Amino acid sequence: xLDLRWFYEKVSLIIVAILVLVxxxxxxxxxxxxxxxxxxxxxxxxxxxxxxLSGFKGSWGFAALVKFKNYTILFDTGGDGEILLSNMKKLGxxxxxxxxxxxxxxxxxxxxxxxxxxxxxSNVTVFLxxxxxxxxxxxxxxxxxxxxxxxxxxxxxxxxxxxxxxxxVGEQALILKTSKGLVVVVGCSHPGIVKIVERAENxxxxxxxxxxxxxxxxxxxxxxxxxxxxxxxxxGVQKIMPCHCTGSRAEDIFxxxxxxxxxxxxxxxxxxx
Length: 273
Description:
- With about 270 residues, this protein is an alpha/beta fold.
- The chain has helices spanning about 1-40, 80-90, 110, 115-120, 135-140, 195-205, 220-235, 250-260; strands at about 45-50, 65-70, 70-75, 100, 125-130, 145-150, 155, 160, 175-180, 180-185, 210-215, 240-245, 270.
- Helix 7 crosses helix 8.
């Protein structure tokens, strides 16, 4: 009997010790889960670009799906609706999940896929530069979508801003105010990528962390490209993902300048923070 009592006492102590360890680790799991969920929730997925990962179709133009906080925003719509919808389907993106569409500028390689999206989901708000033609705005509204005209810089959603219309061309960029700094999404950067980032920082009073989109540097001399890279770093930019109209030579130079903080673009790629 004494041996059995000793045995049961030892087993009980072991069980109690295990329970104490389990209870001690539960708060750590509770702290980590929200962080993982937040990181997974804030991301940008390239759904239309000149280059593409295997299984996706690349074509001249740009579009990116932005997931930030509780918002789902389609930034630009590429040049071809069929290609856009096909890439989105392969990524498991339901067009009906889109709440907002943000159009950077009027060029067809950024607006051509809009009508295909609106056919699938007209329950959206479209933020577009006020200088867009009236017939374009009327067509948006004819689908039942809401068209919000943008000219001045302003906050359009919680911690989400537009640079307002910048010239030449008349282009706006999207600004996300994140815990790591600003995430700036650009279409073609016709006004100049450095000027766009400067305006984003002036609007919010914060430094840019990540810049994604077309930098419009086809044919630009190496000296100019390196100067742009230096200027972006001076502005505090840590990571860049040049896409679409940046140009392969400029991409190579930026990859050299930013090293591991350079992210290659292409349809199917996702970047999170």
